[in-house]
Amino acid sequence: MSKKSARSKQKKQAKESRKKTVLKSEVKLPGFWKESKNLFPAFVALLITLACFYNTTNNKFVNWDDDRNFYENQNVNTTSADNFWSNTTEIFSSTVIGNYNPLTIWTFAIENRIYGIDNPGPWHGTNVFLHLLCVFFIYRICLLLGLRWQGSLVVALLFGIHPMRVESVAWVTERKDVLFGTFYLSALYLYIKGKLKDKMRHIIIALLFLLSLLSKIQAVILPLSMLAVDYYLSGKITKKDIFQKAPYFILSLLFGLLGVFILDDQGSLESAATYPAWQRIFVGSYSYLIYVVKAVVPYRMSPLYPYASSLPVYYYPTILLGPGVLYALYYTYKRNLRIWFFGLAFFTVNIMFLLQILGAGQGFLADRFTYIAYFGLFFIAGYFFDKYIHESQKLKPILTGAAALIFVVFGYLTIKQNQVWKNSDTLWSHVLVYYKNSTLPYGNRANYLRNEGRIQEALADYSKTIALNPLGEQAYNSRARLYFDIAKTPDTLRLALNDYNKAISIDPKNGEFYVNRGATYARLGDVNNAIKDMSMGIQYKPDHAVGYLNRSVMYNQQGNVEAALADINSYLKLKPYNADLWYEKGRSLRSLNRLDEAINAYSRAIKLNNGKAIFHYERGRTFFYLGRSAESKVDILNAMNLGHKNVDQDIKSKLGI
Description:
Elements: H1 3-18, H2 36-53, H3 66-71, H4 74-77, H5 84-92, H6 102-114, H7 120-144, H8 149-161, H9 166-170, H10 175-197, H11 202-215, H12 222-234, H13 239-244, H14 246-265, H15 280-296, E1 305-306, H16 321-334, H17 338-351, E2 363-365, H18 374-391, H19 395-418, H20 424-434, H21 439-451, H22 455-468, H23 473-486, H24 490-506, H25 511-523, H26 527-540, H27 545-557, H28 561-574, H29 579-591, H30 595-608, H31 613-625, H32 629-641, H33 649-655
Antiparallel strand pairs: 1-2
Helix pairs in contact: 2-7, 2-8, 2-19, 5-6, 7-8, 7-10, 8-18, 8-19, 10-11, 10-12, 11-14, 12-17, 16-17, 17-18, 18-19, 20-21, 21-22, 22-23, 23-24, 24-25, 25-26, 25-27, 26-27, 27-28, 28-29, 29-30, 29-31, 30-31, 31-32
């Protein structure tokens, strides 16, 4: 045989050897529930993950998007048996902070009905439970992809307790990560199971995919993840593989376009800080590198990674990662290095749309963005762990010991990082450890301290925010509110007035600032300027409910009941579930002698809050004036049973009470 023929034969043998790099993917695997040895490692992974995240159930809500997503979101915090379906319709037809993730918001509405807003523990518990489901599906997927239980356990634990998971699990707002992840991974699991058994289960997979998309738009990547699986199982991606996923790609495209439209409409698509468009690609390449590094060494984890004032010079060389990653994908694909192609491709496609190249958001990195993407990198680690502990008895104890040590370290870091999310104080204080010149953490911590009554600390943080950015109008507005809240003398109210004046001078078309300044004028006794400012605020911000509320109070002080009633009606169009305002509407209508309408308003107030004595009493009085004695007596007695003391003696006498 010639040397040339020998080399050709060796290459052919090497190629055939590489085709066998998948551990057992071509083998029909035994049923999971039939082999207890496969069940026990899954239980271990879930138990360890639960232990690492259990302390999150002691955490509170935080003032970073939790407010707008649920505890100040009236579609969530007003949900009752009477309006459940109308609120559900509103949730699925609206956005929150430029995001369309209605299924996630809907889960908040359900939890509000079950637990209430003042009980955050179970809300955190739901996040942990969903994360455990994701860990379970990761373990199952690994088994289906040919890993033995040892490798599957390693991947499941890496996915479960890696410190970069904390943001997705410990932050209630990021329910969307663990919720979309549950549907995403279950869809992927069924897809793999269907391929191995030659049954695609298209309808169920499509439904799970849709639920994942409704939880978080990041799920649009699922068809590409499926293609990565196709290659891993067969060593190639065919046209048939691509065409079979056409419905999924269409669904991804529709939701992707919807997401871009919503972000643009809400003004969320903004440049990365002050960077010109051409620099954003460097933000993306740098972020990609950092995510890879943090998969191995999860250092300096922060809830916020704010943009630098100018693009750091060390971002530029990372652009070489782009062609490097593309070449690595091409090389591993052509050389049939399935594990490397699958892991790298899965990570890349699931992170590529989250690299902030468009610059949406307040930071260039986010730990939560890696939630699904890291599976690709973790699978590579689990594959080689599985491979070498079975191929080398010498390496087995070394690798097992190293894995155990890594999990101990990761578990400790995760438990510790969970405490960062304990409340808004711990959250923003942690950010300030790394980013002392960022205004956002000072401002948000100050808001929390203000609400907690820690006035001097809050003032110090507001003043620091203003010192860092003298043109930051929101800091002046927030500090003014603090002065307003604590004011006991006109001098303190004038401090608030000065800050509101400064905020308005910076942003003269912000309706909230005018309404707030109007309230300050009102407390200073200047009703005319109060009404003028509130009217200006409503002009600039027609949906500012507080503006209508405050102006209605001013009109009532002037005796202009008709104008006050008009403002109350405007308020109730925006916030229809405020029982106190329905009561105020009833009072206004009664003073205008529109008694039947007043009865309807009082009845709405009672329906929303049946336990308030004054509501029953005032409706009872109105029934009495209408000559409806029986109904009046019932209401007056209800009011007295609820503790109302000052009952009109003449009414009591005539009703025989």
